[in-house]
Specification:
Blueprint (H helix, E strand, L loop, with lengths): L1 H26 L4 H13 L11 H30 L2 H16 L5 E4 L5 H11 L3 E5 L2 H10 L2 E4 L5 H6 L7 E4 L4 H14 L4 E5 L3 H9 L4 E3 L1 H14 L1 H12 L6 E6 L11 H4 L1 H5 L2 E7 L2 E3 L13 E6 L1 H10 L1
Parallel strand pairs: 1-2, 1-4, 2-3, 4-5, 5-6
Antiparallel strand pairs: 7-10, 8-9, 8-10
Helix pairs in contact: 1-2, 1-3, 2-3, 10-11
Length: about 325
């Protein structure tokens, strides 16, 4: 809104300048430079004498130009002062700096929608220290993101332009957490079109929508109501196990954590069994599962052999997991 007012103020001044110049050229038949000079000193009310003698029509034009110029200058000056005082110029500069920071990102994550679900996702990513960009169309969300220090793109994420501004083609993953399933479906479809390799997790409000969102291109679909209900049942039936999983997966003061990492070709683990690699002795981590393609070995024994491309799900401290990552 303020930017439009600033543009309007500049346009008014330009219109007065052009009208005055054209008037002196037509009415007094002055050269262009004399007409421009006379218009400027008249609008500015500096009190210089006329460039040339004026006819009665020229005097009327000058009086009209003074009135229009004073009004235009007053409006423009007030708009510029308001623009500066309210910090719009600073906000504009900060917005450009933010766009530059986003343009420099690669392998980052995008969180679409920072409502009740998206804000939790964003805080979790921030706690992990990974780069991410938040996308939302509400002004309150922009204020919340700026207060939290998150990179933010204001706009409708179903638009290709907005997702491109968030760096979707360079991103590693995207979370679609808008309030409605239809919007999430369109976000997923748009993001998948722009980046076929993007890993997409989407939110749904009902089980009936899960299959549709998966067909639109999501890799995973989460229904918070269902997940919440299952967790409540687990807490009721097996509270100790549920507490342990809470600490391991998202405790605030996390000592042990779960992580997954892929075995690289030619790494120290490629072609070795768990016993041969001596993972427990060398890193201190516990190998909980091994995923080979779509099959998951949920209880791998010492004879389980790793091959390039396998994903290891392990439990350990940050330092222990870092050592395992060096091996893979």
């Amino acid at each position: 809104m303020m930017a439009r007012r600033l543009v309007r103020a500049v346009a008014i001044l330009a219109a007065v300048l052009l009208a005055g110049t054209a008037g002196y050229v037509i009415v007094e038949r002055w050269p262009l430079m004399d007409a421009v000079y006379m218009t400027v000193i008249t609008i500015a009310t500096v009190g210089f004498r006329e460039v040339r003698p004026l006819s009665d029509a020229g005097r009327l034009l000058t009086m009209a130009l003074i009135l229009a110029g004073v009004g235009g200058l007053g409006y423009s000056f007030g708009t510029i002062v308001e623009f500066m005082v309210e910090g719009h110029l600073r906000a504009m500069l900060e917005g450009r700096r933010m766009q530059k920071r986003i343009a420099d990102l690669s392998g980052h994550y995008i969180v679409v929608g920072i409502g009740r679900v998206g804000s939790v996702v964003a805080r979790s990513l921030a706690d992990e220290g990974v780069p991410f960009v938040v996308v939302d169309s509400c002004d309150e969300c922009r204020a919340a993101a700026e207060e939290a220090g998150w990179l933010f793109v204001h706009g409708d994420a179903t638009s290709e332009e907005v997702l491109l501004q968030a760096g979707v083609k360079r991103a590693k993953g995207l979370v679609a957490a808008v309030d409605t399933d239809a919007d999430n479906l369109f976000v997923v479809l748009t993001a998948r079109t722009l980046n076929p390799d993007l890993f997409i997790v989407a939110r749904s409000t009902s089980l009936a929508s899960e299959s549709k969102i998966l067909k639109s291109g999501a890799d995973r679909v989460i229904t918070p109501n269902v997940i919440g209900g299952r967790r409540m049942a687990a807490m009721l039936l097996r509270p100790v196990v549920a507490d342990y999983l809470d600490v391991v997966t998202h405790g605030d003061a996390l000592e042990y954590r779960l992580d997954a990492m892929r075995v690289r070709p030619g790494s120290e683990l490629d072609g070795k069994t768990i016993a041969e690699a001596q993972i427990r002795d060398r890193t201190g981590t516990f190998v909980l599962a091994v995923r080979s393609g779509s099959a998951i070995n949920a209880n791998p024994g010492a004879s389980t052999r790793f091959t390039a491309g396998d994903e290891i799900i392990a439990l350990g401290t940050r330092e222990q997991l870092a050592k395992l990552e060096e091996l893979v």
